[in-house]
Write a structure and sequence with these properties.
- This protein is of the alpha/beta class and 196 residues long.
- Helices cover 37% and strands 14% of the residues.
- It has a five-stranded mixed β-sheet with strand order 3-4-7-6-5. A two-stranded parallel sheet has the order 1-2.
- The chain starts with a helix and ends in a 12-residue tail after the last helix.
Length: 196
């Protein structure tokens, strides 16, 4: 994806306290370490702890405003799954959020670009399909939404946590270093090493 979009770097920014999630989240220092382990061998990936340093609920609007303030010459792109993108109306200051950056929306079954086109919130924000390509949408703010298809691996963080709770294997679903970290730190409810 990075190469296809011509991105020089992809920065992963784990949320300190995700406002819309609850339950089975590992502590923030553990989530930071798992991301670090997962991306450490890719020179085009970087980890930022900017949301975690705040120590409070993480709002994407604040993060984007901070990024733009720190790096005024760089236009950030926000990469997220279509399911998360469709949930933006429930996020903190959604109208402001879609003014701050362009979006790369990764289509994951069962969602698709058609789901995006049906979103009442995005229709209100003047979203329209580009004539040049079916994958490009425009908003009245002037921002773009680029919809891309990605090979679906059928893996989600929720599924992995659920497998761990049930004592099922997570082998090959994560980088081995992340799997080892989860098991050795007994994350996600009473893990046993034989779950591998």
């Amino acid at each position: 994806m990075r190469e296809a979009l011509g991105l020089s770097k992809v920065i992963f920014i784990p949320s300190c306290v995700p406002p819309l999630k609850s339950g089975d989240l590992a502590e923030v220092h553990c989530r930071l370490e798992m991301v670090r382990l997962a991306i450490r061998d890719n020179p085009y990936f970087a980890l930022s702890d900017m949301e975690c340093r705040r120590g409070e609920k993480s709002y994407t609007v604040r993060t984007l405003e901070e990024l733009k303030e720190q790096h005024p010459s760089i236009e950030p792109l926000f990469i997220l799954g279509v399911d998360a993108f469709l949930d933006i109306p429930n996020w903190y200051k959604p109208e402001r959020l879609i003014e701050l950056c362009d979006f790369i929306v990764v289509n994951r079954p069962p969602f698709s670009i058609e789901e995006i086109l049906r979103s009442p919130f995005l229709k209100d924000e003047g979203m329209r399909l580009s004539r040049e390509t079916q994958a490009l949408l425009s908003l009245k703010s002037g921002r773009k939404v680029i919809s891309i298809n990605c090979t679906s691996l059928g893996i989600s963080a929720s599924d992995i946590r659920e497998r761990l709770k049930k004592g099922m294997s997570i082998k090959y679903l994560l980088p081995e270093s992340v799997e080892s970290y989860i098991i050795s730190n007994k994350l996600y409810n009473n893990l046993q090493s034989e779950r591998r």
